Amino acid sequence: MIDEKFDAIVVGAGPSGNAAALVMAREGLNVLQIERGEYSGSKNVQGAILYADALEQIIPDFREDAPLERHVIEQRMWTMDDRSHTGMHYRSDDFNEDKPNRYTILRAQFDKWFSAKVREAGALLLCETTVTELVRDLKGKVIGVQTDRQGAPIMADIVVLAEGVNGLVGQRSGLREEVSPDSVALAVKEMHFLPREVVEARFNLKGNEGVVIEAMGTITKGMTGTGFLYTNEESISVGIGCIVSDMTESEVTPYELLDAFKKHPSIRPLLEGSECKEYAAHLIPEGGYNAIPKLHGDGWLVVGDAGQFVNAVHREGSNLAMTTGRLAAETVIELHRKREEMSEANLKRYLARLEDTFVMKDLKKYKGIPALLHGNKGNFFGTYPQLISQAMQTWFRVDGVDKKSKEKAIMKNFRETRTLRGMLGDAFKLARAWR
Amino acid sequence: MNEMTTIQTAKVEEKLYQNRYLVDAGRPHIRVKPHEVPSAGLLAMIHLCPAGCYSVAESGQVELAADGCLECGTCRIVTKGTGEIEWNYPRGGFGVLYKFG
């Protein structure tokens, strides 16, 4: 087995672990990365949208050979009731640029590519191996890991935990609190294949242009959650996710929710004739800033989903994962070069780096949003989407009723359903949480 | 009645059939511990599990067939307070193998 001591061990080969391992290995550190899947990506699930900026910071020329599906030129935001959707669409030819800003990707393929870059940089990757526990010295400092392969523990100066939202190593070792059912969403997703010409005709696209749809409303049956539909080269990713504690109280299964979303009159024509080739499920950290656990200690750091680094409002996660992985790596490199100890006090510099970036700034900005939405889920995910749809229908249907009366009817419906006081309260709370 | 209220009960087996698995035969990575009366959380897994792995026996106990598990961890999080299940990831290399993710 492996008897050398490493400068760093990275647990997990998703975006955060790959970013951390690559940056450290490129700077000459002796890095071991351990992944439980057959290869990097085989256990990983995401919508998935790749935000170029975070990856460019690590691999500036990634566009040359990364497996990218479509660059996003159009974003559709929908609020839905059972028969309708009201949309805000933004499409711009400016997104057809030399270096596009957002891409759809398939994680199994993308992570495999990212992982090859990590190995080219000199890191050693051990797949099909699950880390079972941390090894500590007498003072409690983390000095290595034990895996499910036979043999002695593997030692390192630092262990970077990039083990994902359901990372057992850190939770079972007591490094961080167990994930709470009200701060994670359970998302299910299907991959629907269609000829690329059909995808392009259906979404008004040419070449590698892509469309993404984010949807909320009665599709989650009063639970806090969202649905999505993303165009890939010759497939469509369609999924829906809700907060676990809400789903526990409901009676609906995740796949019934997904099937109902797929059958919605606004979604069904987009999937018509497609062939489903995969069904996946994954947890998404949704607790925001207040759910971030302890991120560092003697001999260890936490990056990516394990640190709850997801901006649920903007549906950003993999970019936070890559950025936190890179910042953790830069912290370790600095200490390694100065021959300073990987102690809790020294590793605190990782937190300072995080505070300086969009990661912590954005999570702080929206820290009140998760509780606000969850606490008012009936209104935000049920009442308002229905009221908006009814208002639109009243307004657009031409039926001999005069416009003044239509305006009155719309306002009356809002007031009677949600009350003026309720609406003002919701608006105030939303504005305060958004600030 | 509209579409949303008349949806058929989805057959989760048909969905799982699309997936690739390497089953660690005889070594399930999740076990329900022997119990008399399941907690509300454990009972909720019957509808909550995205792979439909949980069912209830005639005698009232919750049973598990983990072969189709998608390794999301929902059941671990929901029952962590009661300790009714023993949850581990499959041994390295085993379990669901996502083609697209």
Under the CATH scheme, the architecture of the largest domain in chain A is 3-Layer(bba) Sandwich
Derived from helix and strand composition plus strand pairing, the structural class of chain A reads alpha/beta
- What shape does the CA trace of chain A take? globular
Query: Can you summarize the main beta sheet of chain A?
Result: 9 strands, mixed
Q: Largest sheet of chain B, order of strands side by side? A: 1-6
CATH class of the largest domain in chain A: Alpha Beta
CATH superfamily of the largest domain in chain A: FAD/NAD(P)-binding domain
**DSSP strand (E) fraction of chain A?**
15-25%
CATH topology annotation of the domain at 31-88 in chain B: Alpha-Beta Plaits
How is the main sheet of chain B built? 2 strands, antiparallel
Reading off the top of the CATH hierarchy, the class of the domain at 31-88 in chain B is best stated as Alpha Beta
Computed Rg of chain B:
15 Å
Fraction in beta strands of chain B? 15-25%
Oligomeric state, counting identical vs distinct chains: heterodimer
Write up this protein.
The complex is a heterodimer of chains A (about 425) and B (about 100). Helix content of chain A is about 35%, strand content about 25%. Chain A has 15 helices and 17 strands. In chain A, helix 1 runs parallel beside helix 9 and helix 9 crosses helix 10 (about 345-355). Chain B has a two-stranded antiparallel ribbon with strand order 1-6. A two-stranded antiparallel ribbon of chain B has the order 2-5. In chain B, strands 3-4 form a two-stranded antiparallel ribbon. In chain B, a hairpin with a 5-residue loop joins strand 3 (about 55) and strand 4 (about 60-65). The longest helix of chain B has 9 residues, at about 40-50. Chain B is globular. Chains A and B meet through helix 3, strand 11, helix 6, helix 7 and strand 15 of A and helix 1, helix 2, helix 3 and strand 6 of B.
